[in-house]
Design goal:
The chain is an alpha+beta fold and about 300 residues long. It is built from 10 helices and 12 strands. The radius of gyration is 22 Å and the shape is globular. The two termini are about 15 Å apart.
């Protein structure tokens, strides 16, 4: 069965200041693990519905919604449908700098690049902003002569629109530095969890990596991530279980053990909590879809319309 996977547009132009990829997902659950990065990133949803978590905030999104991820904001996405489509747009603000210092650079660009101006994460029903994003995507995909200039112009317009209507906060430099230090500690924690989530993970071990007490670690993790450390680990395990249920012949006990669950009954309860169906039912649905696809291909070949 051919799956819809995350696919990338041509990113070979290393000098391009905007990078765009189109993502399509058919599997529910966690589709983008917790992470953060230096650039401003936009999620432009064109089909389906999902949940985006940014730091401690939770946003329910659907078609034509735009989510802005400011630099160094911890974020991830959960898919809530069978056919999710979105564009991921990453913008390197440093390309806007000019060799000659001017009011635009000193008043706006420096503050943006230093993460002192934070935009609102959720943008709904703003026709001007969406039109601007649509034009950026179209120019990037079509790549007609002068598309780089067109994109640069639209990015300036987009920033102006966001500055006028969608500023969340102006940060002091010391506040930004404190936030950066906290995130650096939690980067090591997240990396450890991502490498070891199929094993038994002790909260005391995680708090030791962050160099804080276990109680404070639990409170801070939930404040930053929006869910508890235990729930985050469970979500990673269930996501792995979904892959094994669909793509392997392992039985449910083997899958539970390979995903960090010592008790298959507990695994089933947690799985149903996150996926809204039991592991056995998901396998049955997956096998049924595989059979339908096989039957369809067989018929197409008989009619001589099957194309490789």
């Amino acid at each position: 069965m051919k799956k819809k996977e995350l696919h990338y547009d041509d990113m070979s132009e290393n000098n391009l200041f905007v990078k765009i990829k189109k993502a399509e997902y058919t599997t529910r659950g966690l589709i983008l693990d917790k992470h953060w990065h230096e650039q401003i990133q936009l999620f432009y949803f064109t089909q389906g519905n999902a949940i985006v978590r940014c730091n401690s905030k939770k946003f329910e999104v659907s078609s034509n919604d735009l989510v802005i991820i400011n630099s160094k904001e911890l974020h991830y996405i959960e898919n809530n449908c069978d056919d999710l489509e979105l564009y991921v747009i990453k913008i390197d603000l440093t390309f806007l700098y000019s060799n000659k210092l001017d009011a635009i650079q000193t008043q706006f660009l420096t503050s943006l690049s230093q993460n002192l101006i934070l935009f609102k994460n959720m943008i709904k029903n703003d026709a001007a902003v969406l039109k601007c994003v649509d034009l950026i995507v179209a120019e990037y995909l079509n790549k007609k002569i002068g598309f780089e200039m067109a994109i640069k112009g639209q990015v300036y317009i987009l920033i102006a629109l966001l500055l006028r209507k969608h500023i969340e906060k102006n940060c002091a430099k010391n506040e930004f530095q404190n936030r950066r230090e906290v995130l650096q500690r939690f980067r090591e924690v997240i990396d450890y969890i991502d490498r070891n989530f199929t094993e038994q993970i002790d909260l005391r071990k995680l708090s030791g990596i962050a160099q804080i007490s276990t109680g404070y670690f639990c409170r801070l993790f939930k404040e930053i991530a929006g869910i508890s450390a235990v729930d985050y680990i469970s979500a990673l395990r269930i996501n792995k279980a979904v892959e094994l249920i669909k793509d392997s012949n392992q039985n449910m006990t083997e899958i539970a053990m390979n995903c960090g669950f010592n008790d298959s009954n507990y695994f089933s309860r947690v799985f149903k909590k996150y996926q809204k169906v039991s592991p056995t039912e998901l396998r049955r649905q997956s096998q049924k879809k595989n059979k339908k696809l096989y039957d369809m291909i067989t018929i197409d070949k008989t009619l001589c319309t099957f194309k490789i």
